[in-house]
Amino acid sequence: MSEIIMDQPLSWQSLAAVAEGARLELSEAARARISTARTIVESIVARNIRGYGINTGVGALCDVIIDRANQQTLSRNIIMSHACAVGEPLGRVETRAIMAAMVNTFAHGRSGVRLELVELLCAMLNQDCVPVVRSKGSVGYLAHTASIALVMIGSGSAIYRGNRLQGAEALKQIGCSPLLLEAKEGLSLVNGTSCSTGLACLALARLRRLVDWADAAAAMSYENLGSQAGTFDRQTLSMRRSDGLDQVGDALRTFLADSPILAAKAGRRTQDPLSLRAIPQVHGAIRDTLAQVSEVVSRELSSITDNPAIDGTPDEPIVRSEAHAVGAGIALAMDNLAIAASLLGTISERRLDRLVNPLVSGLPAFLTADSGTCSGFQVIQCTAASLVAENRRLSSSATLDGGITAALQEDILTHATPAALKVLVVLENVEDILAIEILAATQAFDLQPEATKSAPQTSIIRERVRKEIPLYNDDRPIFEDVDAMKAIMNSGGVIR
Q: Which branch of life, at top level (predicted)?
């Protein structure tokens, strides 16, 4: 198992790796930052300097002063009252992503939590003790991380070694004890953009993997269907300025090099349909969007989003009350990523439709040699169309949903966490669509004239698929083939 040392802010790639199971350890520099910030909080408490959530209530109760004797109670009560999410639990990887983002936030040294709190989060990650976090109920943050905090104080429940345990018992199993929260710690555990940022890192990692498979799927479909000469010629594509387009063009030229199928058909059409000839333009724009959103998420990981932030020194402590927990930037980025991912599924489904349609494919109807008796890929194309439609609905803006909470104290909401959660659903759908396209393109190769051979690079993918998944003859539920194809896609990168 790999290990990541938390020193400077995590990259989104490192955070996604921790979510998938890598260990996370604090560097000495990170430990020092965390400890210094805690010393400053203790000075704030001792000097009775007003600080939101330290010695005041929260939300609409921010002007209620909390005396020192009740500050531990305040921290605990914040966790209990904010653990209000509903619905089905998040998956293991999604919850671990949020936990890793919490560690990243605290390691900046501006939250003021104790070192032992951050060490407990790392211990839970490293021993795979995963809190049960219900998925719905956030307008931006608060509810999901409160469920994680419940386990840290011995309440709630967690999954450990396949068993669901009460929080205190789960901690005992990994050799840890529940925390008694001190001043500010309750607020810090529910505040900031850790939830949306952690989920965003997962979304980036998943789309980054899928764009490579999308290029492979597109190349396989194009080889079966395309006939325009020089479609992906380097000089032609260079007239449009786009790093993503250049990357896709390079990939397509590599996949399709020395294709006997394309050599035999070259020049039969003046122009291929847009779902074929615009692959670099569409896939490239999606890659460009991925790069832009990556920059936003990287900035978020490097930002202080806990409110209030701790500054100054123990002798001259400063409480900086701000609104950095409002995740408008990450919400807009996730809305944008949902649209980009949806478009990737849309163009894939259009290529799939051309593969199964005998009116345009030149292949047996629905990719079966026994039309009528066998339906082949006719209905699985309907499944892909359904997923495209669902993605279209999910691509509506979450950022603009609005709402008013906390008795007008929070009168603008940007819904960053819901925006990230719906991207993950979109990506699941896109993975299914691409798996179906690759299966159909592989079947199309098998139905080409017997003497026809595919390009060397697409042949490698074709052989990999056929090693696990035989030709489809309506002899088994086709969803089993889709699941098997997704397993291939998840087992590593595109084979070249």
A: Bacteria
